[in-house]
């Protein structure tokens, strides 16, 4: 979940095999859960990969892809995504169909199209759908704001507040003020996923030593 909360885009992989899609989209299925988690954690852009197209009945079935696309579209719309802005790509990860290049096994697939206020995009395979994702603005020019998620006291290191940078830049040596206690202190070091950072920018989940 820490990873998801930092993501700009989610790729929802849906299994097309008989019974597999039905299990994922059922009331407590993973397809529903993952789409809902992504939206709830603020991941606004979505790509849907309809995987295992080689194991549909018959293999590489267009009606099966269309059925899944219709059902997933209706569900993600309820959550809050706009299906018109979501690329649906029929793929087979096992055989590499429509992953990096257009597959000859699905001649019926004319490609994906998305429409959003920033403009339209289209393509044939999954990597193009990823390339069409719009990088969000990183407000690094604003004042540092970092809502705290937790504070750890680590023996031999000291106090380590943890949270996600929303605006501005956090780097070692920065003098920061904690609200509402109004305590001022210097940041000694910043790390993300156990690696020291020279600077943390908006979107980074970090721990920092004060």
Automatic annotation (TrEMBL):
Domain annotation Tr-type G: ranges = 1-140
Query: Residue span of the signal peptide, if any?
Result: none
**Compartments in which it is found:** Cytoplasm
Q: What is its main location?
A: cytoplasm
Q: Name one GO cellular component term.
A: cytoplasm
Q: Which InterPro entries match?
A: EFTu-like_2, P-loop_NTPase, T_Tr_GTP-bd_dom, TRAFAC_GTPase_members, Transl_B-barrel_sf
Q: Name one GO molecular function term.
A: GTPase activity
Q: Which UniProt keywords apply?
A: Cytoplasm, Elongation factor, GTP-binding, Nucleotide-binding, Phosphoprotein, Protein biosynthesis
PROSITE patterns reported for this sequence: G_TR_2 (PS51722)
Pfam families per the record? GTP_EFTU, GTP_EFTU_D2
Q: What is this protein called?
A: Elongation factor-1 alpha
* Lineage, opening ranks: Eukaryota, Metazoa, Ecdysozoa, Arthropoda, Hexapoda
């Amino acid at each position: 979940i820490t990873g998801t909360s930092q993501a700009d885009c989610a790729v929802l992989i849906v299994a097309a095999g008989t019974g597999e899609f039905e299990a994922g989209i059922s009331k407590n299925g993973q397809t529903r859960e993952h789409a809902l988690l992504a939206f709830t954690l603020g991941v606004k852009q979505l790509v849907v990969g309809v995987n295992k197209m080689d194991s549909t009945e018959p293999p590489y079935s267009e009606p099966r892809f269309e059925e899944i696309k219709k059902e997933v579209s209706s569900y993600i719309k309820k959550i809050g995504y706009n299906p018109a802005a979501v690329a649906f790509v029929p793929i087979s990860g096992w055989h590499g169909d429509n992953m990096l290049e257009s597959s000859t096994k699905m001649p019926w697939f004319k490609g994906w199209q998305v429409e959003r206020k920033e403009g339209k995009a289209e393509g044939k395979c999954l990597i193009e759908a990823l390339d069409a994702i719009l990088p969000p603005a990183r407000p690094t020019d604003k004042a540092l704001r970092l809502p705290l998620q937790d504070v750890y006291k680590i023996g031999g290191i000291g106090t380590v507040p943890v949270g996600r940078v929303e605006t501005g830049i956090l780097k070692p040596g920065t003098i920061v003020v904690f609200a509402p206690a109004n305590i001022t202190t210097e940041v000694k070091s910043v790390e993300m996923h156990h690696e020291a950072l020279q600077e943390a920018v908006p979107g980074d989940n970090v721990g920092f030593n004060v």
